[in-house]
Structures are given as structure tokens and as C-alpha cells.
Amino acid sequence: MRQSILAATQFIQNQFPDFRPRYGIILGTGLGQLAREIDIEREIPYEQIPHFATSTVEFHKGRLLLGNLSGQPVVCMEGRFHYYEGYSMQQVTFPVRVMRELGVEGLFVSNAAGGLNPAFQTADLMILQDHISLLLPESPLRGPHSDSHGDRWPDMSDVYDAEFIEKALAIAQREGIRTHRGVYVSVPGPQLETRSEYRWLRQMGADAVGMSTVPEIIVARQMGLRCFGISVITDLCIPETLEKADIRKIIAAAQRAEPGLTFIIKHLVSSL
Asked: How far apart are the C-alpha atoms of 214 and 269, rounded to whole Å?
């Protein structure tokens, strides 16, 4: 894998010599507005980058953006990869390792998620204070280990950066953006959960559920990156009042929440 990481990194650096991003960003389903806030210097389709997978999910554009956000150099994935697309966990998280090789110090990850907490409303935001990974089919760290990846047994007791969380919550409070902190549980998908499964996930201590984010964060923490995660609550997964999922309503909820999410991340990045 090391040679593949270096090949992808070298290709990106050849497109934009001397650019050293400070932060990496991964945008989830229906959350492309932040990309329009980046002063883009280079735009690279995933299929052009050696060893990158390609995004097969609708609403994921599949571009790597290099530029500046709030005065900070960033590399942004406009669309991500998922295990349910048929990719391995190593393929899903490969871009994060490339970002680290490019020089990023921190990772900002967004996603669309189902709300398990009865206090949530659609289009609310949830800042991740912790996650549950035990339901994933395997760890992205499974397999042969290289010291260049970081610790073999990385500690996950403080995954999400406390300073980032407190600053983001303060930004949201000042602007009146409905934002919670909570626990995100990652599941493999692509099927949605049953009523009994939603009830069980809530009993486990999860406030929101989705099919992404955690693999990337695990790899980022292994490599020592500061991490920030934020979910848009696109539908409510309360067993007693559960409605059938409607992708149009999910995307509409994501779009309603986008201005707040974009504001928080822009001002969080500018404050660092």
C-alpha cells in the first residue's frame, strides 16, 4: 500500500507543485455547498488519480479539490467511497492516507445520518463527540502493518478533537444554528435498518446512524490527525413514528441544513 500512497500523492503534487494543504475535508451525501466556498486552484477527477476508487453513489461528484478555505490551504473530497459500494475498507480510507502524505494536520468529515435521538429534528446538525465502530464488518487497519501508517494499536478514547468541538458549538450557538453533540454509529449498509435495529442502536447509546465516516476517522487518528465530524440529520429513525425513507426528502433535509454546516466549518477553519 505504501507505494500506492506515494504514487497517488506524487500525481496530485505534480498537478499543483508546492501546494501543502493544512486540512482535509470529506463531504457527504448532498453536502456540496461547502465546496463552492473553496477558492479552487486545482480540480482532479478521482478516476485520474492512481489507485483511487471512483464514487458510484448519486449526489457524490467524485472530485478532489485543492485550494483555500477561510485563508487555509485545504484538500477536499467532493464525494466519498463506501464499503457497500463493494470497496474494501482499505480502498475506502485510501484517500485519507494520501491526504496525510500531502501534509494535512486535521480532517473535517461530514455526513448525512438518521436521527435516533428523540430530541432531534430533520435538518438539525450533530457534532460527533464519539462513535461506535463495532458493527462494521472489519477494521480499516486490518492486515499487514507499516510503521508509516502510525500505531499498530491506536488509542480511540478521544477520537474527536475537544477544541474543534467546543469552537464549533460556540459558532453554532452564536448564529442560532440547531446543533447537538452526540454519538454516531456506523453500519455497513446499504439497506436501512428495521424498527428493532433502530431501537437496539439507540439502546447502545447512539444518537445518529449512517454508513460512512468512522473508517476514515479511524485511519486519520491512527496517523495522528486532529478530527472533527458533523452529521446532518436527514430523517428520523424513531421506531414508534418511523416513516419509509424517501431519498428526495433526505436530500431536501440535507440542503436545508447545508448553510448552517457550511457556516460552522468555514468559521471553525478560520479560527484555527
From this structure: 21
- Give the 3-state secondary structure of 134-175: CCCCCCCCCCCCCHHHCCCCCCCCCCCCHHHHHHHHHHHHHH
Q: Where are the chain's structural domains?
A: 2-270
* Residue 234 C-alpha from the chain's centroid: 15
Q: DSSP character for 194? A: P
* Residue 12, H or E segment: helix 2-15
Q: If one looks up domain 2-270 in CATH, what number appears?
A: 3.40.50.1580
Report CA 80 to chain centroid distance, whole Å. Answer: 8
The per-residue pLDDT for range 117-165, each reduced to its tens digit, is 999 999 999 999 999 999 999 999 999 998 889 999 999 999 999 999 9
- Element at 67 (helix H, strand E): strand 63-69
Q: What is the pLDDT of residues 165-201, one digit of tens each?
A: 999 999 999 999 999 999 999 999 999 999 999 999 9
Query: What percent helix, strand, coil does the chain show, rounded to 5?
Result: 40, 25, 40
Q: How much is the pTM?
A: 0.94
In Å, how far are 70, 237, 266 from 231, measured between CA atoms? 21, 14, 16
